[in-house]
DNA sequence: AATAACACCGATCAATAATCGGTTTTTGTG
DNA sequence: CACAAAAACCGATTATTGATCGGTGTTATT
């Protein structure tokens, strides 16, 4: 999936605010972008069609809300760019070897504790099978 | 940076073959795609402009060669999609938390050994400073 | 000099994001 | 209920970028 510049910005905003209607989104960007309210409208619709936003009518205006959270979307995009070149299921692990060169000690600690947490998840799953 | 479908395929091929000229690339894709040799030509030029390929004249034909290897390109793309949403330097680490949910025990082992290797790199650097 | 192989330029097409005007629908108010 | 405001919806336009190729110029080889 490919996201345009405005689409990314709108997503960012909705992650911060939890939800919002066209008017809110439009007025948020009034200071930084010249996009008309119709432009915001169609951007929201595009994100809705891409299944990144849900919407409910409140009164006669839609309130839009992100379906996926930021981390999940990033994860999805990372998997997508990786799979383009390494369809293999270990592709992501392999890609990590290049990536790891840029982590400092603190970041490595964090990564390691995430790994440990995931190990526990796996073990937990085994017990309950 | 955004890569088209044919651009990705051509890159893949050149990673396998180390290098190749237009004719070679074209004949490689003859069976799977209908792209004319001119289409291959301009795809190679686009990749060259994107600084993903280098080229040297051998006779009067260019020989193209990847500048970045596959893992490095994947790493670059991963950093790029991450930075779009998490400009912070810890963004990648944060993104990893969603990603980690899908790794099995073997993969976790591999990741951990990469982390260990990177720790040693960091220590080595310190000593030589 | 002729020819073949190739690069290079320019044009077109396709897909998609960004843009907005105009119309219809909904709703709240006098 | 009629009307005005607010919002959705539809359709058209523009911009960007990748894919495509024809035609022309350039170079090397015989």
Write a structural description.
2 copies of one chain form a homodimer. With 129 residues, chain A is mostly helical. Chain A has 2 domains: 5-66, Winged helix-like DNA-binding domain superfamily/Winged helix DNA-binding domain (Arc Repressor Mutant, subunit A); 86-127. Helices cover 64% and strands 9% of the residues of chain A. The first copy, chain A, has helices at 5-17, 22-29, 37-49, 70-85, 91-99, 105-127; strands spanning 53-58, 61-66. In chain A, α2 packs across α3 (37-49). The longest helix of chain A is centred in the C-terminal third of the chain and has 23 residues, at 105-127. Chain A is elongated. In chain A, 25% of the residues are buried. Chains A and B meet through α1, α4, α5 and α6 of A and α1, α4, α5 and α6 of B. Chain A binds a DNA duplex (30 and 30 nucleotides) through α1 and α3.
Record keyword descriptors for this entry.
129 residues, 2 domains, DNA-binding, homodimer, two-stranded antiparallel sheet, Arc Repressor Mutant, subunit A, 6 helices, elongated, 9% strand, mainly alpha, 2 strands
Question: Can you summarize this structure?
Answer:
Two copies of one chain form a homodimer. Chain A has 129 residues and is mainly alpha-helical. Chain A has helices at 5-17, 22-29, 37-49, 70-85, 91-99, 105-127, and strands spanning 53-58, 61-66.
Q: How many extended strands of chain A?
A: 2
Low-confidence stretches of chain A: none
Helix content of chain A: 55-70%
Structural class of chain A: mainly alpha
CATH fold type of the largest domain in chain A: Arc Repressor Mutant, subunit A
Strand content of chain A: 5-15%
Overall spatial form of chain A: elongated
By DSSP (H or I, 4+ residues per run), the number of helices of chain A equals 6
Q: Average pLDDT value of chain A?
A: 92
- The multimeric state of the shown protein is homodimer
CATH homologous superfamily identity of the largest domain in chain A: Winged helix-like DNA-binding domain superfamily/Winged helix DNA-binding domain
Pattern of helices and strands of chain A: HHHEEHHH
